[in-house]
Write the structure tokens for this entry.
Amino acid sequence: MTLGKPESLARAVMTTCVNCEQCRDLMEDAPCQYFPRLFNLADRAKSGGKPVSGQDLAELIDLCNACGQCPCRPVQSDIRRAKDAFVERDGLPLATRLVENVQLVGRLCGTFPALVDIVMKSPLLGRLARRLVGVHPDRKMPSFPRDRLARWVARRGLDRPKQAEGRKVAYFVGCTARYMFPGVAKATIEVLERNGVTVYVPEQKCCGMPTFLEGDKPFTLDLVAANLPILQRCVEDGYDIVTACPTCSFMFKSVLARDAQFSPAYRDRIRALAAELSGDTGAVVKALADEVAGPSGRTSSVASEFLAPWVINYNLGLHAEADRGDVGYFAAWDARQRIKVAAHVFELGEYLSALDAEGALHLPAMSPSEKLSYFPPCHLREQNMGRPWLHLLEKAPHSDVSPVGQSMDCCGLGGIMGFKTDFHAASLAMGRGLIDRIDAAAPDRVVTECLACRLQFMQMQEKPVSHPVELLADAYRAERARFPLGEMGYAGVSSGGRLARGDGRS
């Protein structure tokens, strides 16, 4: 696999952005590290200063944390391509290769959680251990749970598919919830089951976003090669794929299927349908929508990207623009398979909002004593779903929640990037404006569905941080304590038809 000369790829991205310059102003108030540096380098060279070197370009490309805030998708893809090329040629430090393998780190630390806690909390041993694995010595590390989620899932039989009528979900847990915050995973399962949804936790690996960010393309492709067939089988068996991690949903909905609508396979299918349906664009869209919906009959917000009439007309050859085709990161995989999986991936808030719209979601009364500040994470923005968790929390009785942050705010962690020694200071600088706004809001609790944001908030401020599903699960438990025999009359049953207990066991 040869991606091309990295300096040439990086310089091409710089030329594109300098010739446009829209992001010079657009990203001025964003906590982005990439664009200010890009324009600084360009201005320096233009004014007769030091030319932009290969080292400058490598350091520039390394500043992008794929937050998705910049408006040009081709530029996002080209930055990743340049990053991959630098890594292909120069390799990755051993410490980065360890930290990017979140699943391995989680398993190792989860095997000896007490020992890891002792080491990390020791001023001397903790700093030494961080230095050995390339983590900044001031970076706080989460405590790893004693009871591994996989055992809890197996005890409840959730690792095996079940025959069920009605809604059923294949839950993609994500590494951070699986290994660091299993309470989020347990709360997700409890909330889904309380609303009559059957839950199955299939075999899964990391979604691939950490390795994607680091430019480790071979590892990323290996992870997707493991996950994609499993997710496809779930879709074919009538499961909706739900994740409580917006980064995982961003990876599967926005990155996995990017440009798939322009692939030869998808174009051939559109043309075959057009011939069959006498060129009626509306009929073609409906036929494709029925195919994408599959057995469950439901699709997530991203489905419209592949079903828009302009996409159909473009593929029918009614547009004269140059056709780049499917040049996405995962173009080697079957485009229709990628589209179908992407269209069935739901972020948990999006899924619960769909239940609510159908009148199938019970929203319990929240704790009236807590003032909540909700932050919508970066990776929510490209998924065309708005802020479902904010609306759900606002709708819940007795809730006191307000959004915090500006439209371009970012916590700054960037996946594993904020843990690395050379990015730690930039990470904190990126998140500083948001943290100041949280401090000004003076909440009792910070709420966000992104567990990477949670880690950064735990690093930079003292207020407790929760995933909104944890608050919902707590409210269900409190309600069950008040109405132990189910007098509320909602779908408070587990997938096995038994009343679900407040402690997450049935």
The two ends are 50 Å apart (CA to CA).
